[in-house]
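Supplementary notes for students who missed Thursday's class. We covered one full example, reproduced here. Read the sequence, then the structure, then the short commentary at the end.
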Amino acid sequence: MEEFIMSEYILKTNHVSKKFKQTDAIKDLSMSVRKNSVYGLLGPNGAGKSTFLKMVTGIIRPTSGEIIFNNHPWTRKDLLNIGSLIESPPLYENLTAFENLKVRALLLGISTDRCHQVLQQMDLMATNNKKVANFSLGMKQRLGIALALLNNPQLLVLDEPTNGLDPFGIEELRVMIKNFAASGIAVIISSHILSEIQQVADDIGIIYNGSLLYQDKIDAHKNLEQLFMDIIRKERAS
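Structure (token representation):
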């Protein structure tokens, strides 16, 4: 596994492990996410991607190891600078997009002006009084990301955000993710869809059976699918 030369990271993990009873879900995982970049976390279903991201976002605690956020040990206060969309968006179906954002803004002590900003950023201004129950899956995903952006995060964590989206929704999300990094937000996006990661990521990590097998910058001249398959096959054969 190659190490990044750059010194400035928004997130680093040092030998992080997570055990559920007798099962090792994450094993001695060390990774580095550069500031203002898109990091693609790749792996088959069940590889440990979601478990790892839940530790980064404070949903579960590591069994051992250390998470460093913005050059200091991670604490729950850092969640004020981390936005996330893991699994299904946490939405109130009987409320509008703005009302969903307003509820979160009140909890965070954020001005409702910020609600309008993220609605515009995620192209949801035209939803007006439409209830979330009547949204398409793509609109719900965009609202989930809007909620994650509400606190102006330095790091945005997206777990399988293209699940269930049609090709137009995937294309829109791809553009948004690139814009997030360009605006100064580091993004971790997990996926098992290699072609999508290759189009948006600056760096990639490949995880399998809870272990990070590979980490490096994206090489436009490499066949990512072939690289991924070679690494996974080698690990399965060992």
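Commentary. Confidence is low (pLDDT under 50) at residues 1-6. Helices lie at 49-56, 97-108, 113-121, 137-149, 167-182, 194-200, 224-237. If anything here is unclear, bring it to office hours.
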